[in-house]
Amino acid sequence: MESLTEREKLILKHVILDFIRSATPVGSKCISAKPDVNLSSATVRNVMSGLEELNLLTHNHTSGGRVPTDKGYRYFVNELMDLEPLEKVDEMVLKSHINELDPSSQDIFKEVSKILGRLSKEISIVSQPYFSEGFFEKIELVRLASARILVIVSIHSGHVRTLMFDVESDISQNKLEVLSSLLNERLSGLSLKEIRLTFSKRMQDVEPSSRQLVKIFTDSIDKIFNDEREGMTLYIGGIKEISSQPEFEDIENYRNIIEITDDKEVVVHVLNSVKLKDNSIGISIGTENQDEKLADYSVVTTTYNADGVKGKIALIGPRRMDYSKMVSMLEFTSKIISGKLKYEKL
Q1: Distance CA 15, CA 11 (A)
Q2: What is the pLDDT of residue 104?
Q3: What does DSSP assign to residue 66?
Q4: Do domains 88-130+232-343 and 132-231 have the same CATH topology?
Q5: Quick one: CA dihedral 47, 49, 54, 57, positive or negative?
Q6: What are phi and psi of 37, to 5 degrees?
Q7: pTM tops 0.85
Q8: In the sheet where 160-166 sits, what is the strand order?
Q9: Residues forming beta bridges with residue 160, ordered by sequence position
Q10: 88-130+232-343: CATH class
């Protein structure tokens, strides 16, 4: 990170805040008129030129004003940004809407994505909780037909996954219940990740006649992990609202952001690739994004806790997003969702 003088920090901060508000290049006269700057326009212009040499600001040939670079935004986010509490009216909207939702319905995630999109004017993404992070409570094996079995996996948070498997031979319900009891006795309380890594060792003494059923359990755990890696359930909002941003008045730019949200593989990659600072908020700016399709956008993401099982919330928008407001909005939303799902299990 560059070492800047206090004067350089002040001017860089003002340029970025003005550009976030106006979406137009910022000139030296505008900055010199700030009450806390107290510098001539010529002096400000020289400082801005120095910041441009450091690749923190840039300008185009049609305007004398400057705009932030990705590096400039990163310096702002890390060193200069003041985190402000979410506005009370936004707090009230989020709290009232989320508290009215039924936590036993998957609609809660869809509605949260809509509310966030409406308030932020950015693309909002909410994932279901990551079932694979949970702690195993019990399994039920139910015979549906002579060669078809229903597997019901429950974790301690109250979440449940059901899967169907075909077997090679007819298996009685009694045998299924015996194996279920054995699995529950040996595995209850372990994380699904731990079970996946140590299952063979824990079940090596199972009699040969039960190994086909044991394989059904391991296949169930594998499927849970694979489903989440390849295509977790996501809810996206803000598709309409983001069009109000100046960057998307160009129909081609708007089409590009919509195509990104339609590509589930890209969205899943976004959620999994942005590193969270102190396990709280992650911000990836422009070319910092691993996917080149997101080079013109920023991503802010966090997690929520559904009684021990985490899900993710993210906002995608132009690099000129109001980072302070978006961070506060995600932190508040995470707190409200986590509280809602802690006491009223899905």
Answers
A1: 6
A2: 67
A3: B
A4: no
A5: positive
A6: -90, -55
A7: no
A8: 136-145, 148-155, 160-166
A9: 154
A10: alpha beta
State how far the Cα of 74 lies from the Cα of 301, in Å rounded to an integer: 15
Q: Which CATH architecture has domain 6-80?
A: Orthogonal Bundle (1.10)
Say which amino acid occupies 227. Answer: D
pLDDT along the chain (346 residues), means of 10: 90 97 94 93 95 93 83 96 92 90 79 95 90 83 80 80 77 83 87 83 75 75 69 85 93 92 85 76 94 93 85 94 96 90 55
Rounded Cα distance between 274 and 282, Å, is: 6
What distance in Å separates the CA atoms of residue 25 and residue 19, rounded to the nearest whole number? 6
pLDDT of residue 271: 83
Spell out the domain ranges in the chain: 6-80, 88-130+232-343, 132-231
| CA quadruple 173, 179, 183, 185: dihedral sign | positive
On the CB side of 94, CA atoms within 13 Å amount to: 23
Q: Does domain 132-231 have CATH number 3.30.1360.170?
A: no
Helix (H, G, I), strand (E, B) or coil at 297: strand
The CA–CA distances, whole Å, from 198 to 29, 181, 201, 300, 322 equal 66, 18, 6, 35, 46
- Residue in the block written with tokens 């008129």: 33
